[in-house]
Amino acid sequence: MSQNLSRETFSEAIEDFLKAVYLLQQEHDRVQTSILAESLGITAPSTTEMAKKLAKANLLVHEPYRGVRLTEAGERVALEIVRHHRLLELFLVQALGYSWDEVHEEAERLEHAVSDLLAQRIAEYLGHPRYDPHGDPIPDSEGIVHSLDLTPLSEWPKNQKGIVARLRDQSPDMLRYLAEKGLTVGSNVEVLTTDPFEGPLTLRVDQHDEVIGVNVALCVLVAPEGTDLDQYG
Ligand SMILES: [Zn+2]
Asked: 157: which DSSP letter?
């Protein structure tokens, strides 16, 4: 029981807040409270209020006009929630037969209720996976994240084999569209032709040819052929 006490002192709202800062920190040097408010769907004043509260608890550093940044303690909480979320997504797909566009909302609700023990058991059951169904890295139990160096399909060299490793846009509509095109994590992909002036790309996806727009190609991140994406191997 004692190993779970550290987490039980935080509310869902705090966990969601720290997780949102963590995710935004992957893309922005500074996380402005306005971006944070938008991502959390709360008002700017309540974002600032929460940031001040969490700064007092030493979970983040809040500098007016510069935004927020997680402290080591804040990052530890965020990584644990991210780990739960991504393990749950993979568990729902692999064990319960969910499709990859259905799992995010379920995992959003369940991530707060998972104990360290349950997370550990799910990880063992799945064979300690490193990536979730969307290719997002799953932090290990020590909070270590193994992310790959990936290239958007829109910049991938022509006639070079790669594998779909991660999706940037994970809205259910986009995920369903990508699945229709065969562009799921682990599938083989090659760019055959690219039209100029940001025109469409013709791809070979596994055994068939597909045409996608450049905005879709921007969302699909590719790794070199032979990259180990464990659970899909
Ligand atoms: Zn995911």
From this structure: P
Residues forming CATH 2.30.30.90 domain(s) in the chain: 151-232
CA 208 to centroid of ligand 1, rounded, Å: 26
- Distance from residue 150's CA to the centre of ligand 1 (Å): 16
Average pLDDT over residues 212-216: 96
Q: Residue 9: what pLDDT?
A: 66
Average pLDDT rounded to a whole number, residues 124-130:
95
First to last CA, the chain: 36
> Separation of 219 CA from ligand 1 center, angstroms?
14
Domain 151-232: give its CATH architecture: Roll (2.30)
Q: How far is CA 107 from the centre of its chain?
A: 12
Give the model confidence (pLDDT) of 23-55 as tens digits.
Answer: 999 988 889 999 999 999 999 999 999 999 999
Task: Give φ, ψ of 220 to 5 degrees.
Answer: -100, 115
CA 89 – ligand 1 centroid, Å: 6
Whole-number Å distance, alpha carbon 43 to ligand 1 midpoint, is 26
